[in-house]
Amino acid sequence: MSDPTRPAGPRIIAIANQKGGVGKTTTAINLAAALAELGHRVLVVDLDPQGNASTGFGIEAQHRGLTTYDLLIEDAALEDVIRATDSPNVWICPATTDLSSADIQLVSNEKRSHLLYDALRQPAIDAYGFGFVLIDCPPSLSLLTVNAMVAAHSVLVPLQAEFFALEGLSQLMLTIREVRQTANQNLRIEGVVLTMHDMRNNLSQQVENDARETLGDLVFTTVVPRNVRVSEAPSYAVPVLTYDTLSKGSQAYRALASELLARTMAEA
Ligand SMILES: Nc1ncnc2c1ncn2[C@@H]1O[C@H](COP(=O)(O)OP(=O)(O)OP(=O)(O)O)[C@@H](O)[C@H]1O
Ligand SMILES: [Mg+2]
After folding, report:
1. In Å, what is the CA distance from 41 to each residue of 19, 31, 154?
2. What is the residue with the minimal CA distance to atom 15 of ligand 1?
3. Residue 174 pLDDT more than 90?
4. Cα 150 to the center of its chain, rounded Å
5. 236 lines ligand 1 (CB under 6 A)
6. Ramachandran region, residue 137 (left: φ > 0; alpha: ψ -120 to 50; beta: rest)
7. What is the 3-state secondary structure (H, E, C) of 111-123?
8. Which of 41, 133, 171, 231 is the most buried (most CB within 10 A)?
């Protein structure tokens, strides 16, 4: 259902899981590229001091200019932080290691959880005509991830098809519940997407079965396979959809984008 309390504008999705290396950044980059291929204008917000999404789009650390740190801490204007990428229809707010000090710097700021919310409601967001904003969260449930959840309409959770994958989810769900109770009552779970899935691996299959049994329809039908082309693409500074457009990984992210759009339409 559309939310009357929120201004019309892009659908803002936080890509979050406090577990490291589960495919958050890979999903942010390639889902953005897949939505862009379908004609949507997409903004990726790199909210991780590691800056992997920025690197993945070829924005080198020394050329990042103003970053999400400036956006959140220094009140920089959104239009001064947004950068075009080489992928048509994809823009990025880049991040650098500066962002790692944000948590500490914000402790005494009363609006500390709402900074990204405010930043993404600047008029520039309308001027660009974004259909989607994808926020690449760091591997923690820190203030940065809370900012993403406060700013977002929904949370998309990449889940690596590995042992213990489901263990961390309860903590993540707890944080989502807390954000709902305190700052963003309409925050939804967009869905859980299984990543780095290996069809030949029984464990992968078992994690998928467990996830579907426990989480039901929240789990996307689309599963992202482990595919070496996906892991090679960032070193060429492009999404896998550009690097190897027919690879299994590219096809999976296109299917994920279509599924996401179909879900969004069903809700409207
Ligand atoms: N489908 C895939 N097939 C093969 N390798 C993948 C796939 N998805 C992600 N990877 C690789 O797994 C590693 C972790 O992925 P990624 O950086 O997207 O995770 P992350 O959750 O963003 O990590 P972090 O928590 O550190 O931010 C990367 O080296 C990436 O290239
Ligand atoms: Mg990452």
Report:
1. 29, 12, 18
2. 23
3. yes
4. 14
5. no
6. beta
7. CCCCHHHHHCCCC
8. 133
As a whole number, mean pLDDT of residues 55-62 equals 93
Between the CA of 27 and the centroid of ligand 1 the distance, in Å, is 8
- Mean pLDDT over 237-266 rounds to 95
Average pLDDT (187-214) is 94
Contact 157, 191 (CB under 8 A): yes
d(CA 19, CA 116): 22
Phi, psi of 60 (to 5 degrees): -70, 150
Q: Is the minimum distance from the CB of 23 to ligand 1 under 6 angstroms?
A: yes
Is any atom of ligand 1 closer than 6 Å to the C-beta of 231?
Answer: yes
Is the pTM for the entire model greater than 0.85?
yes
Q: Which residues are bridge partners to 38 per DSSP?
A: none
Q: How far apart are CA 99 and CA 97, in angstroms?
A: 5
Amino acid, res. 111: K
